[in-house]
Amino acid sequence: MKKVFSIVALVSFLASCGGGTQGQLVGVKGKKWHSEKPYGMTTVPGGSFIMGKSDDDIAGLNNAPTKTVTVRSFYMDETEITNAEYRQFVVWTRDSVIRQRLAEEAEIAGGGSGAQGGGGNNGASIQDYAFKGSANNNNNGGGANGAASNETPYQQYSKHYDPNNQRLNWEVDLLWKTEEYPDESYVYVMDEMYLPMEQSYNGQRLMDVTQFKYSYKYMDIEGAARSNGDRSKFIKSEEVEVYPDTTVWVKDFNYSYNEPMHNDYFWHAAYEDYPVVGVSWEQAKAFCDWRTLLHNGYKVEKGQQRVRQYRLPSEAEWEYAARGGLESATYPWGGPYSKNDRGCFLANFKPLRGDYAADQALYTVEAESYEPNDYNLYNMSGNVAEWVNSSYDAASYEYYSSMNPNVNDPENERKVVRGGSWKDVAYFLQVSSRDYEYADSSRSYIGFRTVQDYSSNDLDLNQPPQ
């Protein structure tokens, strides 16, 4: 018997060591992978460029001196993030918060964890919304592996979870009509989500959007890399209210009638393809995390490699992309003029000493308006200014790296905005002009777009992939 066992052990050892490699060094292979350009994005091939103001702008040289820098390849949204796209984030967060509260109330009501009510989509009781057991999440929306569920992984995993790491139940539809509420516990939860009756008017009862908070964690990689201690102290937690501040249309302007924009701009179907505004730098960062969660959920469901994270562009990446491959250009279309040869304005800004309508737009326009630059990016100048993932320091060009430069000091609340907007004069539309706003501030003229790292080195720096 010992002899047989020894032979089996020897065969197992040889199989594990050889394993079809014939004893050769072949490396440990990961999942099959190919570069995939995300929907709505364009490829910006990496390369070097002269960043900063030209020599004739003496004042601008004080905070944007010329410097040759190199950036790696990346994907970038062709347009600014629109109201419709940002509403997807708001609705997902809203539903997550409500399902969390319903699941907690189901436990209080005595259903216990993992209870499955018999009502299905008819909502027989609040127990239909009870937690579905422990979540086996894997980094940023990995889902519950092996769970018998019709949910997609990003639905199985919610950023809103209880201390016992319970999964939310996304299989049952939420009920919005009061006559369909299944029981008193459901009524109690939903009543909490709306503003009090005394704050309602015109027969409408509005939801309390301050409760729509997105919670996420991230690691301060730079801090952790420079430390020899426990990395756990570099894991940061954030909780951000996701609903845009629609009051910016009133607060940004004194003695101006902008109530229609306040009332309609974010939610009305007429503005779905317009850039979202009233979003702070912190909210833009939360959106990037959620977009990564959303995309990775699909990838995990299909058994595919996870995507690189979505993020805000660095200041250098933004300027490089805005130039569209044109060296020392004043604007994304070249320059130095803001009109084409037919006398038409090339962007949405404040022309002719304040004649806002001269460029065919009073406020913002659809995100895919005017002509794109040579990287197929729309409105890199004008329409709305854009948050970037860099802190503003007038001297930063003097000391940052010449390779993938970025300065983002967590202690510096002044964050760079680029590109100018519908309310700015042409100077701020120049691709080299810098401005800033505080990270927790929202404006009617600031939006954002996202980028994702290009995950390969086989890209010809001068020829973007087809």
From TrEMBL:
Q: Does the keyword Lipoprotein apply?
A: yes
Among PROSITE patterns, the record links this protein to: PROKAR_LIPOPROTEIN (PS51257)
InterPro entries registered for this protein in UniProt:
CTDL_fold, Glid_motil-assoc_lipo_GldK, Sulfatase_Mod_Factor_Kinase, SUMF_dom, SUMF_sf
At the top level of its lineage, which domain of life is listed?
Bacteria
User: What are the recorded GO MF terms, alphabetically?
Assistant: formylglycine-generating oxidase activity
- May I ask which residue range the UniProt record assigns to the signal sequence? 1-17
**Keyword annotations:** Lipoprotein, Signal
Gene3D superfamilies from the UniProt entry: paralog of FGE (formylglycine-generating enzyme) (3.90.1580.10)
Domain called Sulfatase-modifying factor enzyme-like: residue spans: 40-95, 245-451
Which residue stretches belong to region Disordered? 140-162
Stretches with biased composition (Polar residues): 151-162
Q: What protein does this entry describe?
A: Gliding motility-associated lipoprotein GldK
